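Re: the request from the purification team.
They wanted to know what the chain is likely to look like in 3D before they choose a buffer screen. I agreed to run a prediction and write the result into the notebook, where they can find it.
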Amino acid sequence: YRCRYCEVPLHKGKRKTIPEIVGLIDDNIDDINAISITSGVLSDPEEEEEYVIRVIKALKKFDIPIGVSIYPTGRTAARLHDLGVSEVKFNLEAATGRIFSIMCPGTDRELILDELVQSVELFGRGKVFSNIIIGLGETDDELEICVRKLASKGIIPVLRPLSPSGDLKGLKRPSASRLIAVFRMHSRVLREEGLDPAGAL
C-alpha cells in the first residue's frame, strides 16, 4: 500500500495502543459526544483493519457514536456495520482514476468505490463520506463530475485542498478563488441531492 498524498514524511510509524486510546476517552468522557477514528496504514490494510476493529470493540463500552475512516479491504463496510459503527469514510483521494493511479499506485480505486456504495446501503445516505484532494492536477469539470457521482449515490464528498509536502512539495496549493468556486459547486450539488454534512454525528 502506498499513497503519495497520504505519506507523512516526519511520521515515525508509531500508533497509539488500545489502552492509550481508551484512556484518552476515559479522561475526557464528559466532553465527548462522539468518537472519530482516522487510521492510516502502518503495514498493510488487512492488519490495520484488524487493529481498528479491536479499537472499536474496546470503545463500545462508552456507548457513544463512532465514525471510522480507514482504507477498505473489500469487506470493511459490512464488518464496521456489524460492530455498530455510525458513519464511515473511505477516501478516493483523487477526482479521477488517472490521477489516482499516479498518486496511489498499487491501490484499487474501484474497490474503494464499491465499498462506498455498499456503505450507503448499510449506513444510509449522508452517513458515508470520502475525501477528495483538490490540486492534484484535476480540472474543475473533472472535480464536479466526481462530486456529482458520489453525491448521487448518497455519499458526501469532503473536499480537501492540497497542502504540498513530501513527494508533492512541487505542486501548488489551490488558489483562494478556485477554492471558493469549487466549494460553491460542492454546496449546490449537495443541496440538489438532499445531503447535509451538518447531520454528521
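For the purification team: The longest helix spans residues 176-193.
Please add any questions underneath this entry.
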